[in-house]
Every structure is written in C-alpha cells, then in structure tokens.
Design brief:
With 325 residues, this protein is of the alpha+beta class. It is built from 10 helices and 10 strands. Helices cover 40% and strands 19% of the residues. A hairpin with a 2-residue loop joins strand 4 and strand 5. InterPro entries: Diguanylate_Cyclase, GGDEF_dom, Nucleotide_cyclase, Rev_trsase/Diguanyl_cyclase.
Length: 325
C-alpha cells in the first residue's frame, strides 16, 4: 500500500469503500501498520454500540501490556478533560488519539513511541483517518439497526455469527477471558399472536419494543442482540461454560416475566441456545438453537433449553393443532 498524497485521499477512500464492520476494522489496521512502518505497537479501543456510558472494547491490539478496564476508563476520563481541538495527547511514552462521535469520547487509538520520538508529522493524518473510520463505522452501525426495536437487524446477523465462528473478533472480548466460548441464543415471546389478536398490532409493537429494551439493558457491551424477525430475538454472547450461559439467560427470562407491560400485563419468553463450536454454517447454528427453543415451547414455555442437553437426534417438526408461537 502506498500513500498517494500526504493528506491521505487514497487512504480515506479505502476506508469509505469498506461495506462491513469486519472489513473496516481490518482495513484501518492495515493502514496503521503501513503508517507506523511496523515499528510501533498500537491498539484501537472503541464502543461500537455508540453509547458513551459503555467501556470501550478492544477492536485490535498489538500492545505488550494488557489494558485493564481501570486503565481504559481512566484514559477516557483523561481525554474528556482535553480541549475538543486536541488531536493527540502524549502520555507515558504513548500517543493517544481520542475517537469521538457527536462530541462524545467513545474510545481511543494508542500508539507506543520509540524512545522520545513523536508521531508528527503524521499526527493530523492519523487523527483524520481515525475520524473517517468512526464515521464510516457509524454509517454501517445505523444501517444495521432495526427501526422498531433499535436492536441489530436480521441483515447483519449472519455476518456477526460468521465473524464469531471464524474468531475474527476475538480481540473484542475482554482481555484475560480467552477461555470463554461464544453462544447463540434464540428467544421468542410466548403467545404473541394472542397479544396482537386481543390488543392490536400497535400494542404488539410496544411489547416488542419493551422486550427489546429489557434485552438491550441486560446484556453487556461485548454482546450482540438482534431482532431476528417478528417477535423473535437472537443474542450472540461469550460465556465461560454452558451453566454460566444458562444462568445468565435465566436471569433475563425471569426479568421479563416480572415486568409489567401496559394493557397486556405480563409477558414471558422461551429460549434455546447453542455453543458455537464446530459450526459449519450460520444456518446450522440457528437450526440447533431453534430446536432448543422449540423444545422449550413444547414443554410449557417460559423456559430456557441448552441444545446439548436434548441429547437426541435433530428434532423433526411436529404437526399438531397446538399453537407454539
């Protein structure tokens, strides 16, 4: 890769050409490697949910020292105290570039220095490219949002699952938790057709929105929550073991059960989940999670089922007069 001009038109165009989050991350990584000539370790931390209250996640890192959550939080607070015009802040032999969106500090780029060497004259170029990265990421992010629930939409689901299975975004997991596995959960509102039939679709939409808000507030910044379709939701999340994953999903199930919904009263959800291990295709993972969900529906609803606990051959659809969904 070569820089066509010192103002970085070609590099800007490269970033704007990326049409997926993973491709954008990889492109920015390559650009930084080129600009630093491979002589400087660097890391990018950013909150891809675009929520200032969340701690930034590691997008990629080549630093020798692990940044703890306390390190990340203190660095963000330090950057928030700087003037808005500051492009880079030098701190402990590191160049820290604030990553901003709508005047909020959502993360930072850190580049380690060699001895007392400064990054200039590339400071402005790197700051500009970081800004382009954030704006392109925001464009991709909001294109992936379901307008009703404000969760990630179905169109971005497969890309996320594939990236998790391929371990492309393993760095996004908190440092020190490499032993965790990723899980896929499918959740469905019980008896939702009855809600629409009794109260109308406007109230039905409100139920979907409120359940989505409960899900979004209950999962962590590193988790991915989707509106998969209609009243069904999907969640990608890392956990240490199936028991921990089950307990987390159970807490959310009980939270929804205890909530009160205007006019409707109480709502419950059923769910099924699967560990993303030896999964060849997205459809396979969804099929297994759906089988566990189907089992929950068949056995009383308002429960969570782990696919491996079924310990049976793939379930065949059972044709009956029972309305499961």
């Amino acid at each position: 890769m070569t820089i066509a001009t010192q103002c970085g038109h070609e590099l800007t165009a490269r970033l704007l050409d990326q049409k997926s989050e993973c491709a954008l991350d990889a492109c920015f990584d390559k650009i930084l490697e080129h600009l630093t000539q491979g002589n400087h370790a660097y890391a990018l931390l950013f909150c891809k949910q675009f929520t200032p209250q969340q701690i930034p996640n590691t997008v990629f890192t080549y630093l020798e020292e692990t940044l703890t959550e306390a390190d990340i939080e203190s660095q963000v607070k330090r950057l928030e105290k700087l003037k808005p015009s500051v492009e880079v802040h030098y701190y402990h032999r590191k160049g820290i570039f604030p990553a901003k969106f709508e005047n909020n500090i959502l993360g930072f780029l850190v580049i380690e220095l060699i001895e007392d060497e400064l990054i200039s004259p590339l400071e402005s170029l790197i700051a500009h490219l970081l800004n382009v990265f954030v704006k392109q990421l925001s464009t991709l992010h909001y294109a992936c949002i379901d307008p009703l629930s404000q969760l990630l939409n179905r169109q971005t689901f497969e890309e996320k699952v594939l990236s998790v299975v391929a371990r492309d975004n393993h760095a996004a997991m908190r440092q020190g938790y490499a032993e965790r596995r990723w899980y896929l959960a499918m959740l469905d509102i019980d008896n939702f057709k009855g809600v629409n039939d009794t109260f109308g679709h406007v109230i039905g939409d409100e139920v979907i929105l409120l359940v989505a808000q409960l899900l979004k507030s209950s999962f962590r910044a590193e988790d991915y929550v989707f509106r998969y379709g209609g009243e069904e939701f999907a969640v990608l999340f890392p956990s240490q073991c199936p028991t921990t994953a089950f307990n987390g999903l159970e807490r959310i199930r009980m939270l929804i059960e205890a909530a009160r919904f205007p006019q409707v009263g109480s709502i419950t959800v059923s769910g099924g989940f699967v560990a993303l291990v030896n999964i060849g295709q997205t459809s396979e993972a969804v099929h297994q999670a759906d089988q566990a969900l189907y089992y929950s529906k068949q056995h009383g609803r308002n429960k969570m089922t782990f696919f491996d606990d079924l310990n049976i051959a793939p379930l065949e659809p059972i044709h009956s007069d029972i309305e499961l969904f």
